[in-house]
Design goal:
CATH superfamily of the largest domain: K homology (KH) domain
Shape: elongated
Low-confidence stretches: none
Radius of gyration: 19 Å
CATH topology of the largest domain: GMP Synthetase, Chain A, domain 3
Distance between the termini: 55 Å
CATH architecture of the largest domain: 2-Layer Sandwich
């Protein structure tokens, strides 16, 4: 369902977070904003943002912000947002995602230079779909490079190739003894 009534969606998210925090024992506070002003350099086009802070913030951002992403995922399900509209809701905790976006942009630049220098593909570590999208978009205007997603599920990653690189489509043979 598209995000038509943002205030109603924000209220539903508020109810969800109240219940989550009351039952989790986490010492956190949050602020929900509808139509927040966008930062100048940010690609974040969220129409509803949730900023989380508090003594247990480190638990929210631990392990690559697994808990933060899970909270955002539950909120997306609660407001029945279509997959293509997922970028209209954004959770963050102590600017973790802002810093992660900067980190990914820098990593994309380093990967681009490495691919140009070595003429060999560069594989990023597995990342979620939003992070992969950010890398793809950041390198989209590089005329001498191309990016593709590779892998399945939680092992999906971005691979940066030289523009003319021919990907070997033959299946790899496993290592080990031949029989």
């Amino acid at each position: 369902m598209p995000l038509t009534d943002k205030v109603a969606a924000a209220n539903k998210i508020n109810d969800l977070l109240k219940a989550m925090l009351a039952n989790s024992g986490l010492r956190l506070k949050y602020r929900i904003a509808v139509n927040p002003p966008a930062a100048k350099e940010s690609e974040d086009k969220a129409e509803i943002t949730v900023d989380i802070a508090g003594p247990d913030s480190s638990m929210v951002t631990a392990r690559g912000a697994e808990l933060l992403n899970a909270m955002e995922h539950l909120a997306l399900k609660a407001i029945h947002l279509d997959h293509e509209d997922h970028d209209k809701l954004s959770f963050d905790c102590k600017n973790f995602k802002v810093m992660r976006r900067q980190e990914l942009r820098q990593a994309a630049e380093v990967a681009a230079e490495r691919v140009r220098k070595t003429k060999m593909p560069y594989e990023f570590a597995p990342m979620n779909s939003r992070e992969r999208r950010l890398v793809h978009l950041h390198l989209a205007n590089e005329t001498d490079l191309k990016t593709e997603s590779s892998g399945e599920g939680s092992r999906r990653m971005v691979v940066v190739y030289p523009k003319d690189y021919k990907v070997n489509s033959a299946p790899r043979k496993p290592f080990g003894r031949r029989r």
